[in-house]
Amino acid sequence: MTRQRILFGEQLGPLFDDDEEPILLVESLAAFRKRPTHRQKAHLYLSALRHRAAELGDRAELVRSGTFREALRGRELVAVDPPSYAARRLVRDAGAAVLPSRGFVTSEEDFAGWVRNRDERGLVMDGFYRWVREREGILMTRAGKPAGGRFSYDADNRQPPPKRQERLDLPEPWWPVEDEIDEQVRADLDRWERDGTVHLIGEDGPRRFAVTHREGRSALRRFVRDRLPSFGPYEDATLSGDWTMAHSLLSVPMNLGVLDPREVVDAALEAFADGAAPLNSVEGFVRQIVGWRDWMWHLYWHLGERYVHRDALRARHRVPDAFWELDPDAIEANCLSSVIGGVRDHGWAHHIQRLMMLGNFALERGWSPAETTAWFTGAFVDGTPWVMPTNVVGMSLHADGGVVATKPYASGGAYIDRMTDYCGGCRFDPKKRVGEDACPFTAGYWAFLDRHRERFAANPRMAQPLAGLGRLKDLDEVRDQEARRTRW
Ligand SMILES: Cc1cc2nc3c(=O)[nH]c(=O)nc-3n(C[C@H](O)[C@H](O)[C@H](O)COP(=O)(O)OP(=O)(O)OC[C@H]3O[C@@H](n4cnc5c(N)ncnc54)[C@H](O)[C@@H]3O)c2cc1C
Ligand code: SF4
Prior knowledge:
This protein is mainly α. 46% of the residues lie in helices and 6% in strands. The chain contains 22 helices and 7 strands. It has a 5-stranded parallel β-sheet. The protein has a two-stranded parallel ribbon with strand order 3-7. The structure holds flavin-adenine dinucleotide and iron/sulfur cluster. Residues 247-251, 254-255, 288-289, 292-293, 296, 350-351, 354-355, 359, 376, 380, 382-383, 387-388, 391-392, 395-396 line the site of flavin-adenine dinucleotide (FAD). Iron/sulfur cluster binds next to helix 14, helix 18 and helix 19.
């Protein structure tokens, strides 16, 4: 029997192939049957897989199968350790030889060395990020100091969007040109949707994300040239007429494994060295990759498979139908409705829309962490099992009691009003917490703090918000109003 290398859906680039064995690719629709999945996410996965099969030609066997387990039965296999607990069980049960995982800047072994002797409270992204910078010599001077004298340029970034502008003044991002593989994928999805084989949500649309190594490199080059210089200042800002702002749209090719994150970091560093992008933008961007992305990956393993079931705030509300159906018309709050419209159309929203609009709302309304994680995973084109739990359960919903984020990312409408142009066109008023036009974020924020005041009293970082809560004269009214609220 010839030994084959099995490549999973997150391992579709050259980084996962050492040119040693024939390749096995498995096309399984099981994931799209299990939970509602965005139509464009299904398209990207199938397109990436079939493009990889076409690139590899005779070296690859593409098997269409109900489940991965069936497809692996009776084969002799080697695997690069895959990126989920379920897939790791699968390759081990199949008796595959397993190579160390790839696709991140630091290895699991590196992280194990760093994390040794740290308890959960010592798990701080900032410390990890500095360690990676020093170890890899990223943005470090010869004297071992951070370039420009600081490890973080957050204080120079995080600017509100420019006033009286509907868009940032930047060229269009790189867009892929669809080919006959995309056409076939589209026809298959239409058919499977019609006959009920898959449960898809969201709108179809032109493919917007890279699915091959070559496409990923094109997207990266264009991002570095046109958007990276503006990335830092506007990384947290939102304009309703500009869905991409200065973001890279590279999470999809990196999570599919077609673009190596080291390549991404190197391109940004080269732009800095050439004077083509300023330090605040380059540092801010590099931190997203070698800091946040690697950090979330390592925490997925470190915090264990049960992490997704954590529910420190006892949040039990269901995710509303308007979100599962991606229906912006059922939502009155302009910020939420616009973001959900964007997710319906693209399966994507940028970080602050995910964290400070969707995540913040779910936190304040007490949505179940496990169901919210499932919703994000299905609705977002870049959602993978490893990336969601810490971003949703930890960072957004504070359901781990403060491991990933030391204080909850809860905020009222004032933050959204400062960082976006949504509030002007909204029927609610970000300054109002009581009444017909009380902003669901502003009122929701105080009601949330009130519900958890005893728990948060032990957290020194919550002292100021709790002092503000204590000064509210109309708290009883806010509490009653939010308990009865059915429209937002
Ligand atoms: C509730 C929530 C859900 C999220 N879901 C996902 C997801 O499903 N898949 C995903 O890759 N990222 C997720 N993120 C992180 C981040 O929002 C996206 O990576 C980013 O918006 C993708 O767009 P981009 O490629 O243009 O990113 P950019 O803004 O250009 O950032 C560059 C890269 O940094 C990395 N990155 C930055 N922050 C994070 C983070 N917190 N976790 C992991 N990677 C990070 C991504 O690879 C991203 O491509 C989530 C964040 C939150 C708060
Ligand atoms: S007023 Fe409140 S609900 Fe409306 S857009 Fe602003 S933050 Fe969102």
